[in-house]
Amino acid sequence: MVGRRKLIVVSNRGPVIHDRDTSGERVARRGGGGLVTALRSLVEHHDVTWIASAMSDEDRVVAAEAEEEAIEETARGGAPYRLRLVAHDPSAYDWYYNVIANPMLWFIQHYLWGLAAAPDVDHGLHHAWNEGYVPVNRNFADAVLAELEREPEAAVFFHDYHLYVAPTLVREQAPHALLAHFVHIPWAMPEYWRVLPEPIRRAVHEGLLANDVVSFHTQRWRQNFLRCCEDMLDVEADFSTCDVRIGERFACVRARPISVDPQEFDEVAGSEIVLAEEEAIAAGRPEFLILRVDRTDPSKNVVRGFRAYELYLDAHPEMHERVQMLALLDPSRQDIPEYAEYLGAIQRAARVVNDRFQREGWVPLDLQIRDNFLQAVAAYKQFDVLLVNAIFDGMNLVAKEAPLVNARDGVLVLSENTGAHEELGDWALTVNPFDVAGQAEAIHEALTMAAGERRRRREAIAAHVREHDIAGWIEAQLADLDEARERLGSPLSA
User: In order of start, what are the domains of the chain with their CATH numbers?
Assistant: First the structure.
């Protein structure tokens, strides 16, 4: 176990969102997203200041009352931490989030643009970069610099694609600060980054290289980043040590696959609410259950998954009324046109399957669009096949979560373009996310696999996830910070 640290965590979304209850009292509810869950142990074991955007109206009131200072908060379990909320100009934040971060950067990093038709890099995109993404990143950088004045020895831990410019802005004013950045989504090959104008793509890569440590979930994304640095910047990338030299500095580029907390999933899976949800699923399911749990994001490839299931039903009439696909989908980013349109495509694809095959008493595809984590955990316990066919995915934690608690030796059908495939591919049925015929065949193979082989694969995945858990992910990154601090010549632990 490493020593207690002074850490400044920086992310767009924070660990809590403030609101008012029915009596008018201020309440702090847990923030959304997997990052909050993943970093919870940092708050429990280290001296953390968390910098995040003020997301709600009440967040902005809290930020104003604090006069740009951090407030004291308490994590679940009683651990104290400091929270500094950054209030942005609403127009700037809209350009930053809804034009640049999503969809532009997200679509580039997941290879989602059909380049013959989109995107058009027009004056609006340049304006959104200059008047949205950069100013919001500057707000974050200013907050980091203020906290570094208070705690000069603290390490700064940036997260994800929302903050690519902030490290440069911090490095300019605090050249000796210890900075790290974790990118939670894929990193595209150099050619695809050329969708962006040269000044913008340089700013993205230079921003990441302003850190002492840059981390990705897989060796594949790390290699792509190193190639991009060599291709687009005048820097020297060492593919053996995975370091990049920038003048007299080095940026260490690491692969650190994120994981989950197995104990938490064991506890949730055994809770009364989940047991009740599981009972409802078990009562309504046919003999075989195919499950997918996703956000309604184009990168998740839901429409092709439904098409593959349609091809499977076409080829195997003997399975009609014996099988069902349960799709539990969390609506995602519906303020962005591309996401709203994709949700419509999902609903249409589901209707095609049910219109073709539905019979009285049998709905072949049960599509439920809502955010219900406990229902998802209950479904994890019941699946016979788990379909994860993402176009590209930084990791995909569903592929790790579900086999942990599954009680039917369910088979994982896994896209080769997910980060999880680098770890779990030996025990999954691998599919090409664009090959719907191949996915249909994989569904059939999974449903007809011998019981002993199903058990062997499922138990191997569960054992791997239990051995390589979220605590190990955090410890590896703190060790990377130690290595970087040694290069800088001063201790990190408090």
Answer: 1-259+469-494 (3.40.50.2000), 262-467 (3.40.50.2000)
